[in-house]
Prior knowledge:
Blueprint: E1 8-14, H1 22-32, E2 35-41, H2 45-48, H3 51-58, H4 76-82, E3 86-92, H5 94-102, H6 108-115, E4 120-124, H7 128-132, H8 134-145, E5 149-150, E6 154-157, E7 163-167, H9 171-186, E8 203-208, E9 213-214, E10 220-221, H10 228-239, E11 243-248, E12 260-263, H11 267-277, E13 283-286, E14 293-295, E15 315-317, H12 321-327, E16 334-341, H13 345-355, E17 360-365, E18 377-378, E19 380-384, E20 391-392, E21 396-397, H14 398-418
Parallel strand pairs: 1-2, 1-3, 3-4, 4-5, 8-11, 8-13, 11-12, 13-16, 16-17
Antiparallel strand pairs: 6-7, 9-10, 14-15, 17-19, 18-21, 19-20
Helix pairs in contact: 1-9, 4-6, 5-8, 10-14
Amino acid sequence: MSDEKMKFRVGLGVTGGIAAYKAIEVLRLLQKSDCEVRVAMTKHATEFISPLTFRALTENYVLVDDYEPDNPDPIAHINFSQEIDLFLVVPATANTLAKFANGIADDFLTSTYLASTAPVMVAPAMNTTMWDQPATQRNIANLREDGVYFVEPVSGELACKTVGTGKLEDVENIAAQALSLLTKKKTNSPEAIGKSQDLNGQKILITVGGTREAIDPVRFISNHSSGKMGFAIAEAAAKRGAEVTVVSGITTVEPPDGVKVVPGISAEEMHTSVMRELSGKTIFIGAAAVADYRPRSVADAKIKKEKKDSMSLDLEKTTDILAVVSENRHQGLTVVGFAAETNNVVDYARSKLEKKNLDMVVANDITKKGAGFNTDTNIATIIVRGNPKAIDLPIMKKRELADNILDEVLKLKTARKSA
Ligand code: CTP
């Protein structure tokens, strides 16, 4: 490996789906990013695309069947699998996922999965009905448990002319996610070394969802927050061994397992719950979209519209929970805020970091496609106190972003400890 450039070795697995041709583009993108790529294909994949194409592009023998007489390496599945930094499968069919999940190794590619110690990333592509099948979803859940990384399929028009989830993610995004994982592995981040229980001992308090500010017994002021981002962080943190408490406003998703959930429907209720739960915590993350203003007074009875052509609400500021937590922080508490912006994202986020004396701000431009409220993905920039460079992240699933955020929090805590 050269000192200036990192060189990664990627084992690219190609399985038998119509999206197999897109693996060529992923291969080219990885090569452009200085990766050395070797290809393994299933027999069915060769019906869609010839091994010769990959052979020409990689200048290497393409492994389909290691029993073939012209295979130069008789124990290829062992050698191949142990010489790679990542095993990336594009596209991954339902059949291959099922084999991986059940330890079936009846060809070269599936044997490589079993024989490899490298991280495995799969980009599934299939018909929506196959994707939605309980059997497929069970296999996916098991593979996630086993530590397999997923570049999830997106919704769109499929080869079978139906519209639904199952379309291979954009090749640029697959390559970006593979490179991001490889880089993290190289820099020894917790993401790559299996993360397992790296948040063991951390006690995390997270505010999640949107608040509701009552106008009268029937009406309220609220916002579009779904709670997906906050719950994704809670899930990731719990999985990595942290003790997690969530103060939850209004959300559209179920809380994850293994997390304590305390209600905080209005800003004031959320504030009270946070202050009650804060003692002994090591990390506070303000992921909730807390209303900044609430009606100064709440009508006891339903407000009637009779004889009123217009009406105005007198609003007062709510308590800024994040600012109060930061101001009264106990030793060892790391405070993280969110900034959902529509313009000057980094500048506004930095000013929030300063104004509220935060350790980190996760900023996003909610006008971007694939970012913001109620989506499953997000595009974030992380700003860390003391680091003049903002960390720009590509579009990714909120659950994956959750791990990235926690990685940065952990890095910051470790740096402070050793300072
Ligand atoms: N926050 C909070 N309590 C409030 C308001 C916001 O804890 N009453 C937290 C949010 O959870 C988030 C961050 O503060 O982590 C957002 O910062 P803020 O400056 O309030 O952003 P906006 O509400 O978008 O305000 P602005 O209109 O100034 O951009």
